[in-house]
Amino acid sequence: MLTLADILEALSGRRPAQPELEAASVQRVEIDSRQVTPASVFIALQGEHRDGHEFVWDALARGAIGVIAERKIGDLASQVTTFDGQNLVIPLGASLIPLVFLVENSLGALQRVAGHWRRRFTVDVVGITGSIGKTSTKELVWSVLRQRFNTLKSEGSYNNEIGLPLTLLKLTPQHQRVVLEMGMYAVGEITQLAELAQPRIGVVTNVGPTHLERLGTLERIAQAKAELVQALPADGWAILNGDDPVVRGMASQTPARVMLYGLTPDCDLWASGVNSHGLKGISFWLHHGEDVIHAKIPLLGRHSVHTALRAAAVGLAEALTWQEIMDGLQTVAGQVRLVVVAGIRGSTLLDDTYNASPDSVLAALNLLSEMGGRRIAVLGDMLELGEIGR
Description:
The chain is α/β, with parallel strands linked by helices. The protein contains 13 helices and 17 strands. The protein has helices at 4-12, 19-23, 56-61, 106-118, 134-145, 163-168, 189-197, 212-215, 218-230, 245-248, 304-317, 322-330, 358-369; strands at residues 28-30, 40-43, 66-69, 81-83, 88-89, 99-102, 124-129, 151-153, 177-181, 201-204, 237-241, 257-262, 269-276, 282-288, 291-297, 339-342, 348-351.
């Protein structure tokens, strides 16, 4: 497990000689002091509304054995051992633990520690990006890979410069695969995430107007998403949506092998005969080379066939059998973004309010059109669309 010695080595470049730090195993790394439990390390980050440095004492009171912070907090340095980047400063009568690491930038320190820890392992990493479908794809890829491998995944939508390193710090020698979402708000961010995670497989779902307000044009969004496939090694796999011309074009931007998925026979893995069975899922035929497999899976809406194709493609890239792939597609733990909720008087609510975009709304409306009975669509605002949202 990660230890305080590992953190000090990552931040200073040298391994400490103190046995206490080698033996101090870190059970959790938290950015919310309320989640701190004994043997945790707390990262004090400057948030949009609150400053994590306000909660350092709270984290220590809850049993944190380490804190990463950008500045001294009150008289903390007179009571608790600190590491100032060069030396351990131990107050008279204090023990080595808890240990406060004083750094110039807490987020940068978190990323350095995560990158250092990631490089300790030879585990294969799957990175997933795209305008929509990242979380659903991550869950289904994890469901497929865990049929054979001990697989770690990012929780929820932990897909940014904070969430991804927190996931990497959960790596243990028992893990054989890691599945990570990679989101972005600007060009260059996925490059940074890929440098930390070192993915061998990259999946791109699509390129759409999500975050258009921040990036300005679809071309800029495509440029940012392509950073994942550009970062892959030559022996890796770029798994690309062959039905999206922009994503298909990324095949020329990667040194890795390319696997196209989609609904046309010119893709390496493709689906035909897609049928939606309403709330009972979808069925389709999978084609890969000479293999033709019939699948029926518990995902909602015809658009979910692309999610299934991505997960199957990762399974093929990892040399799983069709039986393993199909078992994984069948055992996904529920719908991720479009959730079915029982309403009043026997009604059914399809909730797609999770970070909706024009593409996801169209998919939800298509599913609604396949339902029986009276149908009502209630639409709210979609943010970060720039001029096209007006």
